[in-house]
Amino acid sequence: MTIACTALLIVTSCRRHEDSAQDISIVESIAPQPVRVGEAAVSVQLTDIHGNPVSHARIRVEGDMAHPGMAPVFSDARESAPGSYESPVNFNMGGDWVLLLHITLADGRKIERQMDVKGVQSR
Amino acid sequence: MTKLPETLAGSPEENEILDQEEFFASPPFDLLSIPVAGRLLRWRHARTLLQIPLLVISVVMILQGLLGPSISPKNLATVLTWVHFRGALVLALLCAGNLFCLACPFMLARNMMRRWIHPRFNWPRKLRNKWIAVALIILVLFAYEVFSLWSSPRLTACVILGYFAVALVIDGLFTHGTFCKYVCPIGQFNFVAATSSPLEVTVRDHEVCGACHTKDCIRGRREPSSQLAILQRGCELALFQPAKVGNMDCTFCLDCVHACPHDNIGILSRLPAGELMSDPQRSGIGRFSRRKDIAALTIVFCFGALMNAFGMVSPVYVVENWLERQLHIASQATVLGLIFALVIVVEPAILLGLAAWITRTWAGVKSGWLAVAVRYSYSLAPLGFGMWLAHYGYHFFTGLYTIIPVTQNAFAEIGWPVLGDPRWTLVGLPKTFVEPLEFGFLLLGLAGSMLIAWRMAEEDSDDHPVRAFTPWAAVCILLFLASAWLMTQPMDMRATMMAG
Fold it and tell me: Do B228 and B180 have their domain in common?
């Protein structure tokens, strides 16, 4: 059984999601700075290899605390201008957060981007 | 309840006393005598059966920690270690006893190793105390903060691996249960916490032990034809059952249960923390009042709980920044080390020293101040346990269901989503339920500590027990208030520079 679990975990662990859209440039930012407990805004700019904005993508933002066992927060971004997406994120406690941007392009390709938000300050 | 004949029936007060006597005189509950669990635990391979799942889970945790997702809440190593394992450990100690040591996976690996490698050395006499373990507990608590172990699956896996390695090296070199008795920080934590547990591995009938000549419970049972071949191990931690008192140093391994030829050892119920109310000679330990090392262990257990909780709330960063500015220290590790020294060494030295001095001078207790401090420091064990319960219980209950999406995710990642898509919204019980529970744990700990301090005061000072008790009650209330205040602070868990 140990061997079976070990094999399963090695397979699990070694499998990585590869970005299927290497030609897309992603620039993300968060405001206001410094980030405090409460609502903040995540901005994401998507451009293609020629610098043209990438529209009609779906972006789901997932926020996880650095400590396990805490509730993650989710929100969906809306496109405010061609290639520019904005999403509110509710940081419900202080500390280090990891934001995962789950991006699905209009042609169905998927990208995942990690964004570390260190030291969200308690009010 | 047996009804008394009318001629013997007295006043309601007398009857109440008789009821109480009858209650306490009734035979204690024995876990080994209940139908299914009792029979299972009496089986010779029960411990191995319990250890195997934990060993498998440990291997899974190490692999996921090293090779799996790098985000802590999505990795089995961090979720199981820092949410479920710690919580289950303290809850088991509260509801039953030292069940983790019973199912310890490190000892299963060690037992397998000892089939081929036989230790040759005895643990040095000078090290036969808890000082190494005290230092290791402080080191583990410090490493937890400075490396933000909770935020790193890789480091968590390394800690588990390191634990296996140290256990195997120590018990590969030294005989008996050296690692458990003198080194293992988790074990020492369990030993102190288990003094407040409701169950104890102990003798059922002392008269049977009086007539026993083989002493198999400590010597082990050997092959009659060859005295060298051991059929069943006796206690590896040098606890002789007829003289054993309480749960200190008892790993619940049940070797003594299996070795006893008279079936005279059970897992009996008792008054939680009752063992701290008196100071008898204990087998394998001696008297608590003469063991400064175990007193230090208890102090670190109690004040370490405070420090561990303090490291997770916002005010710790205010203190850190203030110290950095005042002392012009740039290193966060140094500042944290300073806070640790203040909370775990300076604070108890001042509080307990002062309380001991007042007890001596005000209540006229004859012992020296250090002896008084050592004796009464044991009264802090239930309160310390209450603090750990409140802290670990909080993470356990509020993150109870997180194991479900993490496991779903592990299967989904290999393209075999048999458990469905991860339901990341599954978290745990609501804080409105958990927070009163936390407060209850703290109150329970406070009540236990106050009761023990009162019993000690009554014993130490016939004339002024209130005077002897008051300073220790003040220490307990102060610690309780500090813990309650910490509970109300906003959580703020930042990884330090070491963890990136």
Answer: yes
Position B422 pLDDT exceeds 50? yes
CA A80, A85, A91, A96 dihedral sign is: negative
pLDDT the model gives residue B500: 37
Indicate the CATH number for domain A23-120: 2.60.40.1940
Distance of CA B64 to the CA centre of its chain: 27
Q: Which residues of B touch A2 (CB under 8 A)?
A: 55-56, 59
Same domain? B304 vs B265: no
- Chain B residues closer than 8 Å to A64 by CB: 71-74
Query: Does residue B3 have a pLDDT over 50?
Result: no
Residue B36 lies in a domain: yes
Rounded to the nearest angstrom, the minimum Cα separation between A123 and chain B is 9
Question: Residues B100-135: pLDDT tens digits?
Answer: 999 999 999 999 999 999 999 999 999 999 999 999
The Cα of A66 is separated from the nearest Cα of chain B by a number of Å equal to 5
Query: What is the C-alpha separation between B476 and B448, in angstroms, rounded?
Result: 10
Q: Which residues pair with B174 in a beta bridge?
A: B121
The number of distinct structural domains making up chain B is 2
DSSP B3: P
The answer to whether the Cβ–Cβ distance between B71 and A95 falls below 8 Å is no
pLDDT digits (tens, 9 = 90+) for A76-121: 999 999 999 999 999 988 889 999 999 999 999 999 999 999 889 8
* B223, B168: one domain: yes
Q: Which residue of B391, B400, B424 is the best one to mutate when testing the A interface, meaning the one whose CB has the most A CBs within 10 A?
A: B424
Contact call for B73 and A62, based on CB within 8 A: no
Average pLDDT over residues B391-398: 96
**How far apart are alpha carbons B231 and B75 in whole angstroms?**
42
In DSSP notation, B340-383 reads HIIIIIIHHHHHHHHHHHHHHHHH---S-HHHHHHHHHGGGHHH
